[in-house]
Amino acid sequence: MDVYPGVIDGSCDSTSQQERHYYLLSQLQNLVKDLPSSFQQRLSYNTLGDLALALIDGTVYEIVQGLLDIQHLTERNLYNQRQKLHCEHQALKQDMARKHKEALQSCKSHNLALLKTNQQGEVETLEIRVREEQRMMDKKIVSEIDQKVIDQQNTLEKAGVPGFFITTNPQELTMQMNLLELILKLQQKETQSGSL
Question: What's the CA gap between 74 and 187, in Å, rounded?
Answer without folding.
Answer: 23
